[in-house]
Every structure is written in C-alpha cells, then in structure tokens.
Write a structure and sequence with these properties.
The structure is a single chain. 23% of the residues lie in helices and 34% in strands. It is α+β, with helices and mostly antiparallel strands. The chain has one domain: PknH-like extracellular domain (Protein Transport Mog1p, Chain A, 3-Layer(aba) Sandwich). A nine-stranded antiparallel beta sheet has the order 1-3-4-9-8-7-6-5-2, sandwiched between helices. Mean pLDDT is 78; it is low at 1-13 and 20-35.
Length: 235
C-alpha cells in the first residue's frame, strides 16, 4: 500500500502531548487488567504486527501507512524526533519522556508497525512494538516527573501549552493506562488528545486520538476495537 503523508493534525502540536501522555502511561498503576488468556511471549514479525493493526475505523480513511520495520528506522519515529528537535521546551527534561528508548539496541531493532486513520477532523494513530522476550514485564517507558504534567514548547513563532490528566478506560491488556491532554496556545485549547498505552505480553500498543474534542468514550471505543484485533491476530 502506498504510504501517504502524515496528517498535519499530529504535528507539531500533538507530538509533545503524546510524549507527556505516554510518559504518564509508563508509570504502571492499576488502569488495566490482565487478559483471561496468557499472552504469547515470543517476538512477532513486522508482517504479523502489521496484520494486527486496525484495518478500519468507522468514518475514517487510512491517512498514513501501514508502515513497518525496525522501530528506530520508521519514518514515523524519525518524524517525531525531528519535531522534538525543532522545539524549545520550558522544561527540557520533559523532551524524551514518554518515548521508547530509541537508542537502546533492543528497542531500535525491535519489529514494529504503525498506521494512522483520519476523518480530517479526528485522527487515530496506532503503533505496535514487539520487544525482546527479556523486556516483558518491564515498564515500556520511564515514568513522568510530576512537573511534566504541564509544560510548554515553542515551535517556530508559536508557543504551545500542554496539560495532561489521567482517565480510566475499559480494562484490557497489562498495565493499561490512559490520559487526556489539552493542547493549545494563547491561553486557548486548540485540540484535545487521548493516549492509551498497554502491553500484550512483550508487545507494546500505543493508541493516540487527536481532535478538536476527544472524550473518554472515544478512547473506550478505539481501545475495544484495537485490543480485540490485537489479541485475535497475535497468537
């Protein structure tokens, strides 16, 4: 399938909110419950991960991908790095939180797949990363320092503000965590973003919903659909 351009809705304003939310997700916590069946612990191939991605979201079309490859080589990964490099944060230590350690050989070479669905007003990004078996049970990302729940990033001539809060979603996977983030500038919210991170064995699944308004029910719906496909496909 021809890879389309990443929608503008996910950058630059969204990329940093995603980092903050995913970082908070990395704290563990009791947001989710283990699945009834024991998840497989083997490393999945890029082809298998691609098949496990959402292939359809009602009212949306594929706007990017699916793209598959080693995590460190994905265009989506590199685009995120470029967006972060172009920004100046008021709290520099918040820059790398919430992201898998792309410099770790194990993570850098890990099979992964990503896809973006969009309606033009709302986008849904899903990423799957199959970490080595010895990484199972370890936090996917580092926990977020408390002061990174609110921060700002200057991109070009605009300064964006971010505020993240935890929410509960349908219990799925292992250590499932979800957060909603208000992202805006000039004291006004420009968009809302929802992020969900969970594990299925050694597979890390990140879901990211971005739009003018994103509600808890929106996260619940996409988690239900994505997790069902993940567990049905990866055996």
């Amino acid at each position: 399938m021809r890879v389309r351009r990443v929608p503008r809705i996910v950058a630059p304003i969204a990329i940093f909110a995603l980092g903050a939310a995913a970082a908070a997700c990395g704290g563990g916590g009791s947001g989710g419950a283990s699945p009834k069946a024991k998840p497989p612990s083997r490393v999945f191939t890029e082809k298998e991960l691609t098949a496990a991605l959402l292939d359809h979201v009602t009212g949306m079309r594929k706007a990017y991908g699916p793209e598959a490859g080693a995590y460190g080589s994905l265009k989506a990964t590199k685009a995120g790095e470029q967006a972060m490099a172009a920004a100046k944060l008021d709290k520099p230590h918040c820059r790398e939180i919430g992201h898998l350690d792309k410099d770790s050989p194990a993570v850098k070479k890990a099979p992964s797949a990503v896809v973006v669905h969009s309606s033009g007003l709302v986008s849904v990004t899903e990423a799957l990363v199959s970490l080595p078996a010895d990484q199972a049970g370890k936090p996917a990302v580092a926990a977020m320092p408390a002061d990174c729940a609110r921060y700002s990033a200057r991109v070009g001539d605009k300064t964006y503000q971010y505020a993240t809060q935890p929410v509960s979603v349908s219990a799925h996977g292992e250590a499932a965590q979800a957060f909603l983030t208000d992202a805006g500038f000039g004291g006004k919210t420009a968009m809302q973003l929802g992020a969900v991170t969970m594990r299925y064995g050694n597979v890390v699944m990140n879901l990211f919903v971005a739009g003018r308004t994103v509600a808890k029910r929106d996260l619940d719906a996409i988690v239900e659909q994505a997790y069902a496909r993940l567990t049905k496909t990866l055996k």
